[in-house]
Amino acid sequence: MRFYRKQRNLSQKQLSIRTGLQRSYIAEIESGKRNPTISKVYQIAISLRIEPWRLLKPITLNEKLYGKENNFTTFDITINKAKLLTVAEYMDQLIKSIQIIRKKKGWTQKDLARFSGLSEIFIRLIEQRKKEPTVESISKLAIAFHIPVWQLMKGIDRNSIWFQHDMWL
């Protein structure tokens, strides 16, 4: 997150104003002391005008050195041309994606709990939208599914507010 914030010449205070989150909370996320919920990741991503999965993807050396991604096109959100989802709509799509992947694998919630190390009750509450997953819990689910966490998030982005380009067609 710090990489993208600095790339946009924003201070933590400026980002906190854009997101409505406390500056201290932003600092704790950046230092790894906080495990934000996915809805907070979404809020921050929208404020930085990037896709949420980018905040969960490791920064490459090329990005650090040149501030650009290698072999990837970055698209900013254009509110006039794209439907900007609410946090609730985004969370609904994430949970739907988790359910689809789980069912495609032929897994029950109990199976997913066993493979992810999360409790069956927690999985059920997430799927019932009664509990909000954190970055850590989404990471555990992605590991169970054998996909990177950012790719799980990217799958949602591709179908919602982001422009499609030839990699997704």
Structure description:
This protein has 169 residues and is mainly α. The protein has helices spanning 2-7, 12-19, 23-30, 38-48, 61-66, 87-104, 109-116, 120-127, 135-145, 149-158. α2 packs across α3. The protein is elongated. It starts with a helix and ends in an 11-residue tail after the last helix. Residues 70-81 and 157-169 have low confidence and may be disordered.
Q: Residue ranges: pLDDT <50 for 5 or more in a row?
A: 70-81, 157-169
Order of helices and strands: HHHHHHHHHH
Biggest sheet, open or closed, and with what strands and sense? none
Helix content percent band: 55-70%
- Discrete helix count: 10
Class by alpha and beta content: mainly alpha
Number of strands: 0
Roughly how many Å is the radius of gyration? 16 Å
Strand-residue proportion? under 5%
Give me some keywords for this one.
169 residues; mainly alpha; 56% helix; disordered C terminus
Task: Detail the topology: elements first, then pairings.
Blueprint: H1 2-7, H2 12-19, H3 23-30, H4 38-48, H5 61-66, H6 87-104, H7 109-116, H8 120-127, H9 135-145, H10 149-158
